[in-house]
Write a structure and sequence with these properties.
Length: 190
């Protein structure tokens, strides 16, 4: 959690850093380190590579800060740099892995029965298995939309996919997930 006021203008921070107050960059790092690291884990599935990726992204952001013009949210600009860095690195590596796979299991509530806990765990595993079966472009759009809270326009700016393609990918991914989970649910009840 950051200590600066939530309405602190990132454009102002960027302008101040570019003007010479380099120590303010730590505010941007503090605010975005976790989501950038999570994106790195999604692409590389290994803490060391995700840490290296995070450092590389923030180095690129710092070097290119004067290029941020404020036409989009700072987070969109930063995620685009992170996404492009990851895509370039991932071409040499394995396929993208959804951020959902890195999310911790849900904590058991006090009023849950052991059976209910097992069913929830199995449901989570079914969702993750279904996500793994989606095409990579669908998983990227789903992650950006649901886990990063990006709008379709922000996903377009980050990935370069046209907005209608993104909408189609999110719609198709939700439909495929729904169908797979409906089949899973029938298996549980049947």
């Amino acid at each position: 959690m950051s200590h600066e006021p939530p309405d602190y203008n990132e454009q102002l921070i960027v302008e101040q850093i570019v003007a010479g107050q380099k120590d303010l960059f730590r505010l941007l790092v503090r605010r975005y380190q976790r989501p950038v690291y999570s994106m790195g884990m999604g692409f590389f599935r290994n803490a060391e590579d995700a840490s290296d990726f995070t450092q590389e992204v923030f180095l690129k952001v710092y070097r290119n800060l004067s290029g941020f013009e404020g036409r989009s949210r700072f987070s969109t600009w930063l995620y685009k740099i992170a996404y492009n860095t990851a895509v370039n690195d991932i071409k040499r590596r394995k396929e993208y892995v959804s951020l959902a796979e890195e999310s911790p299991a849900l904590e058991a509530r006090d009023d849950e029965t052991p059976e209910r806990i097992l069913i929830r765990g199995a449901a989570r595993d079914a969702v993750l298995a279904s996500l793994r079966e989606l095409p990579q472009r669908y998983r990227i759009c789903i992650d950006m939309f649901f886990f990063y809270g990006c709008s379709y326009q922000e996903i377009e700016a980050i990935t370069g996919f046209p907005v209608n393609t993104i909408k189609s990918h999110v719609f198709r991914a939700k439909k495929l997930l729904s169908e797979k989970l409906r089949l899973w649910n029938k298996g549980v009840e049947g």
